[in-house]
Design a protein that fits this description.
single chain, alpha/beta, Peroxisomal Thiolase, Chain A, domain 1, 10-stranded mixed β-sheet
Length: about 425
């Protein structure tokens, strides 16, 4: 029996500088970056203060839209609820719709990283040997929330309760691929007939001190502090020197075709195929010839029941690191060969920075808008003359062009590779 068709009927998004998907799409069309100098990084004296971050003004609006006391919940829960409300409104759904049919929640989120205030508090609770006295730490009155309230699945728990979801609830912590894995997992559950309705995507808030230290120690962050913040994310350029840390969230409503038609929902797009593999190459990079990435993309296209020539546009992972961009470029050349002459490509992280788990979900939403509106986004800071792989047709200006199929890639640390094929409604 042929697997069921899966429709996209709504989405919500928050990214640095913007509070909705259409504003982000328009901003990138205008070639305006979401990357700025992070005041916190400047205050701490970091050598490079560039980041994509949700600012105080945005947080005021996010908290104002929270139904409970926002100070009693961790930030990622406040963000998740705001984006979920957007997605439901866009899909024309009420929260109770999820409890009335077999439904699921699939949310990408990586570990919560302590900030400097958390570390200061922990330092005050060290015993004579320099070890953390956990009892003393838990008993301190200064904290504004329970120290374990920010576990990785806290926002998943909150949304599941708010929406009354009981059939399938999962949190995906698959590094930079987590958002795409969450969407792909929801697609699989609907395709197989396990559920009829899903909300899926990712929430990531790691644009703070500890992630900066961690990724900088790996040499993964941009090393060119003398370059303006908005120009530092330079995917596929010869002079790229690392990614820019970012944050954000996007959630998508998926429905079986039958469920969407029963409620007369207007589809915004379709999920056609998906593939996910964990390679055993290296913690921070893939096979240098691109073969592992090629295998993932090819499997997603095959899962969609398509041939390679059907792919018209690729939304690349494009982190702006030397190794990742090179691996992905070789994979694209291996898989598509001469077909690349008629294909367009984009790298959204050029405008957004790298929001880790959030990136795949945000990029999926941007791809869906391109399919719906027939506008392909430019890659900021890209110039074919300075590109390492000029044979790849990355757009440096927005292009008005109707397309039917997009392949979107997410390749994460730890060897988690994920590709998803999206189609026009």
């Amino acid at each position: 029996m042929r697997a069921r068709e899966v429709y996209v009927t709504g989405y919500g998004l928050v990214a640095p500088t913007v509070l909705d998907a259409q504003s982000l799409f328009q901003r990138i069309c205008e070639k305006r970056s979401c990357v700025r100098e992070h005041p916190l990084f400047v205050e701490l004296g970091f050598p490079n203060a560039a980041a994509g971050f949700i600012d105080d003004q945005q947080w005021q609006q996010l908290r104002a839209g929270f139904d409970e006391n926002p100070s009693a919940q961790p930030r990622q829960t406040v963000l998740a609820e705001y984006v979920a409300k957007q997605a439901l409104q866009h899909a024309g759904l009420q929260p109770e719709a999820f409890s009335q049919v077999a439904s699921g929640l699939f949310l990408g989120a990586n570990k919560y990283c302590a900030n400097s205030q958390d570390l200061d508090l922990a330092c005050m609770c060290l015993d004579e040997r320099g070890s953390l006295d956990l009892d003393r730490f838990l008993q301190r009155q200064e904290r504004v929330e329970h120290p374990f309230a920010r576990r990785v699945d806290q926002q998943t728990l909150h949304l599941a309760k708010r929406l009354g979801i009981r059939d399938h609830i999962s949190t995906h912590s698959d590094a930079c691929a987590a958002g795409t894995v969450a969407i792909g997992s929801a697609y699989r559950a609907i395709e197989r007939g396990e559920i009829d309705l899903a909300i899926c995507g990712a929430v990531e808030l790691m644009a703070n001190e500890l992630p900066y230290y961690m990724f900088n120690s790996l040499g993964a962050l941009c090393q060119k502090a003398d370059v303006p913040a908005q120009q530092q994310s330079r995917p596929f350029m010869r002079d790229r020197s690392g990614f820019v840390l970012s944050e954000g969230a996007a959630l998508i409503i998926l429905e079986s075709k039958q469920h969407a038609e029963r409620r007369n929902a207007k589809p915004l797009g379709r999920v056609l195929g998906y593939a996910n593999f964990c390679e055993s190459e290296k913690m921070t990079s893939s096979s240098r010839d691109g073969s592992k990435y090629e295998h993932c993309m090819e499997a997603a296209i095959e899962d969609a029941g398509l041939l390679r020539y059907a792919i018209q546009h690729v939304n690349t992972h494009g982190t702006s690191t030397q190794v990742n961009d090179s691996c992905e470029a070789h994979a694209l050349k291996r898989l598509f060969g001469d077909l690349l002459d008629g294909m367009t490509l984009s790298a959204n992280k050029s405008a957004l920075g790298h929001s880790l788990a959030g990136s795949g979900a945000i990029e999926a939403v941007l791809s869906l808008i391109s399919l719906r509106d027939g506008v392909l986004l430019p890659t900021l800071n890209y110039d074919a003359q300075g590109a390492e792989f000029p044979e790849l047709r990355f757009l440096s200006e927005p292009l008005k062009q109707s397309i039917n199929i997009v392949l979107s890639n997410s390749f994460g640390f730890g060897g988690v590779n994920s590709s998803i094929v999206l189609g026009r409604a």
